[in-house]
Amino acid sequence: MSRVYLDHNATTPLRAQAREAMLRAMDVVGNPSSVHAEGRAAKAIVEKARGQVSDALGASAADIVFTASATEAAALACAGRSLHGSAVEHDAVGAWIDPVLAADANGHVRVATPAASCLQFANSETGVVQDVQQGLALSDLTQAFGKLPFGFDWLGVEMGLVSGHKLGGPKGVGALVLRQGLDVQAQIRGGGQEMGRRSGTENVIGIAGFGAAAEAAQRDVADGKWACVEKLRNILEKALAAASKTTIFVGKEATRLPNTSCFITPGWKGETQVMQMDLAGFAISAGSACSSGKVKASRVLKAMGYSELEAASAVRVSLGLETTEEDVLRFVDVWAQKLKKHEARAA
User: Fold this and answer.
1) Which terminus of the chain faces fewer neighbouring Cβ atoms within 10 Å, N or C?
2) Residue 118 appears among annotated catalytic residues
3) Do 124 and 177 fall into the same domain?
4) Whether residue 173 is found in the same domain as residue 245
């Protein structure tokens, strides 16, 4: 049997459109900061991608500042600012904020002062979608971009974070989305690229792939393709619930990303489940990929009120557009077999 990849929130397969754009960009020799014909050709690739990302985000009233990752974009957005947030934020944002905002049992966070706060659009571990308010200082859009219909302009936030490899682009390229007229202090200084906000020669090849992927991803959203994925996610959870009466589905009463299921089977360590399913041919995760090497209970789940034991017993399955019903049911069948063995050992 071939392997089944069910960890799309960590990273997605490279889209054909991105691969083609990157291959074309590889043949362009110029530096985008050079004024000669070769440099202008490279610059044209960067600006085309900037337009593609802007259009896909609905960000006509914003600047797109390319970075090496959403993590770098978070640093660029947060440095020098005093922002409030919650413990459910991704580590890339959590490292910069004062986590004074509380999450409820469904993972929702109430923001009292939007102008001094950050709030992710959707959580990478649980898939829970937040009520993003107008005037919010910063929103991590990384997981929502390419899965949910929204426009940066009508969201009304000041800054947003996005990443190429979460929607079928290459790894190593992201962007800070910045409301026009708002300034940030460059953290990487030098030649003044990216409108003076991020120095260093642009990753032309990666940016080309990001732009093409963003355009294709937005087209999939507009075509309603994620509704089919949501149906598969529901099939997955129904089958898991039938196999285990003790398993808890995190955020099930909340609006979630259409592809994401985070579930807890108390006493069966998430890391153990991940390893057992990996050996059986299934790629899943036990939390945010950026923290997956750290063997500890999810702070996101603990912030939602789950116990240490429960938070350490969670796994995440995140589906993709290419995931099939056969993939999902095969996963449940193998998972249920592993659960029975776990329960037998624990008896």
Assistant:
1) C
2) no
3) yes
4) no
Do 231 and 299 belong to one domain? yes
Cβ contacts of 330 within 8 Å, gap of 6 or more: 1, 4, 282
How many whole angstroms separate alpha carbon 265 and alpha carbon 276? Answer: 14
Range of the domain at 129: 16-222
How distant, in Å, are the alpha carbons of 208, 267, 311 from that of 271?
Answer: 36, 11, 11
Strands (E), 287-334: 314-318
Q: How far apart are CA 312 and CA 309, in angstroms?
A: 5
Q: Which of 78, 118, 262, 290 is catalytic?
A: 290
Give the mean pLDDT per block of 10 residues along the chain (347 residues): 94 98 97 96 98 98 97 96 96 96 96 96 98 96 98 96 98 97 91 91 97 98 98 98 97 97 97 97 80 69 96 97 98 98 90
Q: Which amino acid is at 254?
A: A
Q: Distance of alpha carbon 34 from its chain centroid, rounded?
A: 34
Q: What is the DSSP letter of 143?
A: T
224 exposed, middle or buried (CB, 10 Å; 0-12, 13-18, 19+)?
exposed
Question: Total domain count for the chain?
Answer: 2
Amino acid sitting at position 242: A
Indicate whether 151 and 257 sit together in one domain. no
Pair (180, 247) in one structural domain: no
